[in-house]
Amino acid sequence: MLDGPDRPLYEIKANLFKALAHPARIRVLEILSTSEGPTPVSEILAATDLEPTLLSQHLSVLKRHHVVSGHRTGNAVYYTIAHPKIAELLLIARMFLADTLAAQRDRLDAVESLPPIGTPR
C-alpha cells in the first residue's frame, strides 16, 4: 500500500498530523482560528505562557508544514492559519474528543452502577 504512487500523499498527510501532534501547537492553532485576523506573536505568547524560543520552534514546525503563514510588519511578526479547513479540522477533532469522553463516561457510569462486591476472605 505505501509503495504505490500514493506514497508521497500518505507521507505529506502523516507529516501534517506530526505537525499537529503537540499540545502547544494545537493551542496555538486554536488561538489563531478564533482570531479576527493576523495575530501577533506577543498575543500568542500571552495566551500560551510559552517561552519565546519554544513558541518560535512550534511556529516554525507549523510553518514548515504549511499549517500557518507568517509575515513581519516592523518589529512584529503576525501569524494566520494557512487554510480555513484547519479550523474545521480542529473543530472536528474537538467533537471527536467530546464524543469519545462521553462514551467513556457512560461506561464508567455503568461500572459504578454494578452491585457491590464482597471483600475477599
Automatic annotation (TrEMBL):
* Entries under InterPro entries matching the protein: ArsR-like_HTH, HTH_ArsR_DNA-bd_dom, Metal_resp_trans_reg, WH-like_DNA-bd_sf, WH_DNA-bd_sf
Where in the numbering of this chain does the HTH arsR-type domain appear?
5-101
| Annotated SUPFAM superfamilies | Winged helix' DNA-binding domain (SSF46785)
Cited Gene3D superfamilies: Winged helix-like DNA-binding domain superfamily/Winged helix DNA-binding domain
> Keyword set for this entry?
DNA-binding, Transcription, Transcription regulation
Say which domain of life the source belongs to: Bacteria
A Gene Ontology molecular function term for this protein is: DNA binding
Which NCBIfam families does the protein's record reference? Answer: HTH_metalloreg
Q: What is the protein named? A: Transcriptional regulator
